[in-house]
Write a structure and sequence with these properties.
With about 240 residues, the chain is an alpha+beta fold. The chain has one domain: Aminopeptidase (3-Layer(aba) Sandwich), CATH 3.40.630.30. It contains 8 helices and 8 strands. An 8-stranded mixed sheet has the order 1-2-3-4-5-6-8-7, sandwiched between helices. A hairpin with a 5-residue loop joins strand 3 and strand 4. Helix 1 packs across helix 3 and helix 6 crosses helix 8. The two termini are about 25 Å apart.
């Protein structure tokens, strides 16, 4: 059954506020994490295309960022249309500081057809850590909130925004009825941010070991040692 946001949960709304340094002034200012407005979808898709794909560990390892991007844009566009994703703004500004694209993983989901080998390899790796984490049985749920893209705009990095954006999943998840949220964190920085936000490790594996055991995928040119699947109970 395809997930749909309840009409009883207003959209868009603010889920989390916090204070952090303003990279322009150096002063402490307020930030907010809110639902991503529909009129900013195209901007986020461009940021995914031109920044995220050039930096994300697995996308770079498999040279995924040089492929034709229409399929990726279609996937992310469909996910955005579920009205789950969140964005971070600085108070008094509509400049995007960072965002997290979110979707729902359901126990009854069926495997999707994969268009090419690079996508297949990445999906094999992600599905492997999902299966080893066994979220449905571990947490006793039929569905969970899942992150498919966390990006902080370069200007706003080093301010702790990743951790705060991840924390926003708690009030968002509560309002929408989720009991757990999970993500395959591919890099060291995002893993540390997740830990600070309260996520715990369900499963981890060295990238080098992926070639020697299931799923038997060699991950070349990787800039991190470990892939971690991490979760946060929403209570």
């Amino acid at each position: 059954m395809s997930w749909k946001r309840s009409e009883n949960v207003g959209f868009p709304q603010i889920w989390h506020t916090f204070e952090a340094k303003d990279p322009d002034s150096g002063q402490s200012v307020k930030y907010r994490v809110q639902d991503l407005p529909e009129d900013r979808y195209d901007e986020v898709l461009d940021l995914m295309k031109y920044i995220f794909l050039k930096e994300e560990i697995l996308a770079v390892a498999f040279d995924h960022h040089t492929d034709p991007r229409e399929r990726k844009m279609d996937f992310w566009s469909n996910v955005l249309n579920k009205k789950l994703s969140v964005v971070c703004f600085k108070e008094g500004s509509d400049e995007i500081c960072g965002f997290n694209i979110l979707e729902v993983i359901q126990k009854e989901d069926k495997p999707k057809e994969l268009p090419d080998q690079k996508v297949l390899d990445i999906t094999k790796v992600l599905n492997f850590v999902k299966e080893k984490s066994d979220i449905f049985n571990r947490y006793g749920v039929e569905e969970y909130l899942y992150g498919v893209g966390l990006l902080i705009i370069p200007k706003y990095r080093g301010l702790g925004l990743s951790t705060e954006i991840l924390r926003a999943r708690i009030p968002l998840g509560k309002a929408l009825g989720f009991k757990v949220t999970s993500t395959a964190f591919t890099g060291t920085a995002s893993q540390k941010a997740a830990s600070r936000a309260g996520f715990i490790e369900d499963f981890s594996i060295l990238y080098g070991d992926l070639a020697n055991k299931e799923p038997f995928v060699t991950v070349p040119n990787v800039a991190s040692e470990t892939l971690k699947f991490m979760s946060l109970r929403i209570e």
